[in-house]
Amino acid sequence: MQTRQHLFLNSVWDDAPSGLNAGKCQLVLAFGSSESIVKPEVFQYLKASYPQADIVFSSTAGEIMNDSVYDHSVAATAVELEKNKVRCVKTNINQHNNSFEAGNFLMKQLAQDDLRCIFIISDGTFVNGSELVNGFNEANHLNVPVTGGLAGDADRFEKTFTGLNEIPSQGNVIAVGFYGSGLLVGHGSFGGWDEFGHERTITRSDKNVLYEIDHKNALDLYKQYLGDYVNELPGSALLFPLSIKINGSEENLVRTILSVNEEAKSMTFAGNLPEGSKVRLMKANFDKLIDASSIAATNSYSSIGSQHHEPDLAILVSCVGRKLILQERTDEEVIAAREVLGSKVTITGFYSYGEISPFSAESKCELHNQTMTITTLTEI
């Protein structure tokens, strides 16, 4: 596998040297700020540079390239596979009745015997991430790993943009299928947050909208814990996500609040919160958040059963909430992953509104919030 990276910053392209053959490049991943990723000149530059490649775009809450995190930029990574192949498909949420159907449709488009994994780039405002991954899972008869993330819009939560071979727009979901027996795919996801307070039960919800916990208004209960942060809702909610254990599951998911409705006394989350699920509040521990990146990287090796194959490419999808908390220490979680993955790996990625990954090699795909999620690709 050959890669080449480009950074568009302050309206100037910085192109890294590489042995990649631009005419044979199959895939370009372009992650950028909402205001940068939609500039026509960005699409035109990448299309002219890689005329045969599928170019996948996503807006972000921060761009990751190698050991650094950027804002107001576009981080583009071109990929040339030597022995294996890539196929990309796109749909728009408006073409389906719901997010489940969109995921189901895309999975069926990519399914074939030599499929090794799928990487999803989804709109982060109009798509229900939980329903989307449920749709992929329902049609994933080959049980291939499904990873990815929901597009971001800094900390504004207004508009996200995604696209395939076009200037990105709203509502799109892109799925990248990787095929071939000579491809090792690793994945890992970890949060590092501390739980606190009593375990409680969700008693009234509608998919990703929460109304009651323990038969009490959830928003009022939540505000009791926020203290001085209550006047900064919904942004301050990123600092206090919920840990949720869905009925029948042994694993805890993390859910982040996207918005609050004072009139309805409800909170809308990035993923579903089924009634009967157990929840606890969470808070940040800086060192544990950074350590979580190392754990996610280590788990990506565990998922392929080998630490003898240093990955060629690592795609890091972290959460906007982590970035807002870590602030000037944000680079540290990327460097922590690098220390595990090795010095030769090409690192790209972005800060998202939701991360997509299985818990382990044997488990189905899940939507996560407030995690570092890592997908690695290695040609052998």
From TrEMBL:
Residue ranges occupied by any FIST C-domain domain in the UniProt entry: 218-359
Domain FIST residue range list: 24-217
Native species: Mucilaginibacter paludis DSM 18603
Domain of life: Bacteria
Classification via InterPro entries: FIST_C, FIST_domain_N
Pfam families hit by this protein: FIST, FIST_C
Residue ranges that the Swiss-Prot or TrEMBL entry lists as coiled coil: none
Name of the protein in its database record: FIST C domain-containing protein
